Amino acid sequence: MIFANLIRIRNGNLFSRQVSLIVLFLSLIFIITLNINCSSKKDNGTTKNLTELDTVAVKVSKAKINNIRLIKTFTGTLEGEEQANIVSKIPERITEIKVQVGDNIKAGQLLIVLDKSGASSQFYQAQAGYLNAKKDLERMEALFKEGAISQQLFDGTKTAFEVARANFEAAKNTVELTSPIGGIVTAINNNVGELASPGLPLIIIANIQRMKIVFDVGEEDIPNLAIGQNSEVYSELKPELIQKGKISQISKSADIQSRSFELKTLFTNTSDKWFKPGMFCRVNVELKNKKNILTIPNAAVTVIQNTKGVFVINGHKASFRKIETGITDGIDTEILSGLKGGDVVVTLGTNDLKEGSPVYISEQTN
Question: What pLDDT sits at residue 26?
Fold first, then answer.
């Protein structure tokens, strides 16, 4: 079209030339405008596509007022409420075992007899001394009643008898081992004929109507624990069987090597006495219970360049905000500063976000 106009300009008169120039000028303007519009539309499409590619799909939740119970689990070993380890004071052979595992016994009942004639036993010597002292006292008592001896001589004989009797009782107790408490025989660790090693338990007696779990806690948890605090005891062998109890004892000093404190929780055994001394169990202890505090889901908390924070949604963009957190129960986290109730925070998709990233909310939880 342009070339045709040029030919007409060369061959036409002056008027025709002027008209042709105007037509040529308008044609050039039209072509330039058309190219600009096409280029503009292409640029807008590219910009739009880039924006869509930068948009991150996220899941969000609101910061809200909630309650948090901080519960921590410890492991420990079970004992009876009252428990006694029967040990020998001398290394002698076991000649008799008077009980069996599971027997109910009374305090003072005879459990084990050791060799009374052994090298380390003083039983027979002490018995002889006691019997002689007893006879002497009986003779002196008869003479004293008749006035044949003085009060001083009689008192001396009586004192010698008391000493001989105490020696005999001590010697007897080293070879005839009795229970200091009533309860159930939960373990017998030796057989007749074996040598009793001093200090090692021969028999364990326990009152298992109520049990206690002995466990250790770190020094960071001690400020949150107190006698009477609620706890739950269970075994992984039967996790659905949970017994409620209370902390009954807290050590006043830490173990030098482990730097941990020993605690005891007392609880009632089941009717069938399922919990046994020596079992390995777990105990859940409620360390803290905070009510009406601002919380967010744990998944919302992220760390960027050693700064703890969350991504907050403003409009359709995400912005990073520094926060200060308190306790957590493994699901929600307490917010001490940085957020207010109703703020919308990202719980899924934080790894793909940066300051000002456009977002698309795929799901929101209350």
Answer: 63
Residue 307 and residue 278 in contact, taking contact as beta carbons nearer than 8 Å? no
Residues 6+ apart with CB under 8 A from 366: 61, 62, 64
pLDDT at 241: 95
String of DSSP letters for 274-336:
---TT-EEEEEEEEEEEEEEEEEEGGG-EEETTEEEEEEEETTEEEEEE-EEEEE-SSEEEEE
Tens digits of residue pLDDT in 188-200 = 999 999 999 898 9
- Going by DSSP bridges, is the β-strand pair 332-337/302-304 parallel, antiparallel, or unpaired? unpaired
- On the question of pLDDT at 296 being above 50, the answer is yes
Which residues, in sequence order, are CB contacts of 50 under 8 Å at separation 6+?
Answer: none
Compute the distance between CA of residue 179 and CA of residue 187 in angstroms, rounded to an integer: 13
User: How many CA atoms lie less than 13 Å away from 103 in the CB half-sphere?
Assistant: 16
Tell the CATH superfamily of the 55-88+207-366 domain: Efflux pump adaptor protein, beta barrel domain (2.40.30.170)
Buried/exposed code over 291-312 (b: 16+ C-beta within 10 A; e: otherwise):
eebbbbbebbbbeeeeeebbbb
**Tokens 């957190």, residue located:** 325
Q: Which residues of the chain form CATH 2.40.30.170?
A: 55-88+207-366
Question: Is residue 231 a contact partner of residue 286, using CB atoms and an 8 Å limit?
Answer: yes
Average pLDDT for residues 257-286, to the nearest whole number?
Answer: 93
Other CB atoms closer than 10 Å to residue 137's CB: what's the count? Answer: 20
Give the relative orientation of helices 14-54 and 2-11 as an angle to the nearest 10 degrees: 160
Nearest alpha carbon to residue 126 among 116, 136, 115: 116
Delimiting residues of CATH 1.10.287.470 domain(s) in the chain: 92-188
CB 214 within 8 A of CB 79: yes
Q: Give the Cα separation of 350 and 59 in Å (integer).
A: 9
Could you read off the pLDDT of 11-45 as tens digits, one per residue? 445 445 555 556 556 666 666 555 555 544 444 44
The dotted CATH code for 92-188 is: 1.10.287.470
* pLDDT, averaged across the chain: 86
pLDDT attached to residue 47: 43
pTM over 0.85: no
Q: How confident is the model at residue 109 (pLDDT cuts 50, 70, 90)?
A: very high
